[in-house]
Amino acid sequence: MSPRWEPSSNIHRGRTVVYTLQAHLVFTPKYRRGPFTDEILTRCEEIMRAVCADFGTELVEFNGEADHVHLLVHYPPKVAVSRLVGSLKGVSARRLRQEFPGHIHKYLWGDHFWSPSYFAASCGGAPSAIIKEYIENQKRPG
Predict the structure, then answer these.
(1) Which residue, 126, 15, 12, 125, is CA-closest to 75?
(2) What is the average pLDDT across 118-131?
(3) 19 is catalytic
């Protein structure tokens, strides 16, 4: 018997859509310098939770180390991940520089806080091999 794809309990409903979209995001500071302390990571998480709420998304999980942060975000289909990332990085950079100017300046100088690049991966739900098999096994009419 082949494995079945079971929908996640994390399914959201909109007026015209049912969805469960999650992305794993990783951001690094410029030059991969390590400006993050526990206090700064905690504040970064608070800022990013607020930005996600403004976008109608949910920051499910957040963590980081001295030189990068990881986010797991649940988002609706109307949200472009690139726009969300731009706001997450822009707002957090501005606020962290304002709130921790001396510490941040020791690690990062100039106008940039985050590296311009980022990692994004879709995640959640069934593995793609299971979904592929499920689709292949659907009956065709006639």
Answers:
(1) 12
(2) 86
(3) no
End-to-end CA distance of the chain: 24
Catalytic residue (choose from 75, 107, 118, 134) = 134
Q: How far is CA 101 from CA 20, 35, 93, 109, in A?
A: 38, 11, 11, 10
Q: What is the mean pLDDT of residues 99-122?
A: 89
Cα–Cα dist 54/65, whole Å: 26
pTM value is 0.85
Q: Regarding predicted confidence, which is higher, 58 or 105?
A: 58
Total number of domains constituting the chain: 1
Position 31 in a domain: yes
Which tokens go with 29?
A: 């500071």
Domain with 46, as residue range(s), is 14-136
**Which of 5-19, 35-49, 127-141 reaches the highest mean pLDDT?**
35-49
**Strands, E, within the chain: which ranges?**
12-13, 18-19, 22-27, 58-65, 68-74, 119-123
